[in-house]
Amino acid sequence: MTIRQVSVIVPCRNERRYIEAFCAGVMRQQLPPGWQLQLVVADGQSDDGTRELLQAFAEREPRLVWIANPARIVSTGLNAALKLATGEAIVRMDVHTEYADDYVAQCLAALAETGADNVGGPWHAVPDADAAPMQHAVAAAFQSRWVAGGALSRQLDHNGWVDTVYLGAWPRATFERFGGFDEQLVRNQDDEHNLRIVKGGGRVWQSSRIKSVYRPRATLSQVFRQYLQYGYWKPFVMKKHGQAASLRHLVPSVFVAALALSVLVAGLSAVPVIVLAGLYALAVGAMTAAVAGSRRLALPVLLRVPAVIAAYHVGYGIGSLVGWWDALRGGAGRARFAKLTR
Q1: Number of Cβ atoms within 10 Å of the Cβ of 331
Q2: Which tens digit of pLDDT belongs to each residue from 178-236?
Q3: Which of 117, 178, 193, 197 is exposed most, by the fewest CB atoms within 10 A?
Q4: What pairs with residue 171 in β-bridges?
Q5: How far, in whole angstroms, is CA 239 from its chain's centroid?
Q6: pTM above 0.90?
Q7: In sequence order, what are the residues at sequence separation of 6 or more whose Cβ sits closer than 8 angstroms to the Cβ of residue 98?
Q8: Residue 199: CB partners within 8 Å, gap ≥ 6?
């Protein structure tokens, strides 16, 4: 039997608490007959002992190789891992996500069945087992299609062609045809790569059979900083491809801009501020009701959902405005928006 290889690529930095369990989990993946697995980890100059744990794991597990990622960001880490990956199929994983035992097998099946250039599963946020109410609220709001603006990646039962997927799995030929990840982008490099695929005539497929669990941020400040970065880097993607923003990307920045303008003219009249704040409060209330209607939430969790929704929207809106300012001036992106948010 001819042995075929699939390579799992992973960027990481300072993951001492999680890296050994993550690597062990990848090694337990149940592959189809005739397939073998390679795990390639790109370490972003960890200084908490992660690198030493990777080295020790690699010494007893030949399927694991690791490489340094001096730039410390996800896109450079993915590209560094790609250089060592020898598989005919490439699967991306992240350390803070947990995967079904057949995750890789389902990725390979979806690639074979659809002929897609990239496949992936839905983005499923689940709080930690010992999570406080805030992380439960973050997960509940994250999964809501109303809060996410109808993003298909949050719909757990969706199967079909999409613009982007969570993480991803590719035939090697996809990278040969469309190139690797844009190293100018600290965030949104996966969205940009998928956009490049679709604009270049390729196709992206989401399969509900590709199952994983994402552990969301646990504090409001982490959520705000995360979405501040998402919003900041999105204009750089749009500018690169000359792509108009979709409504769900525009609304947060338009709201924040309108609110800031109304505050500036508040000396003349406070009415615009009151109207805008009131309308947004009603919108947040409606979204909170939608979140509560989709799942049972304990009262301490429910009371935190409005703040989480506001952190998502306001963080993304402020980030987008600053990002557009920098992108249109020809900047390469500010270092302060490159810092990890965990």
Answers
A1: 11
A2: 999 998 888 878 888 998 999 999 999 999 999 999 888 999 999 999 999 988 888 88
A3: 178
A4: 89
A5: 20
A6: no
A7: 25, 212, 213, 215
A8: 241
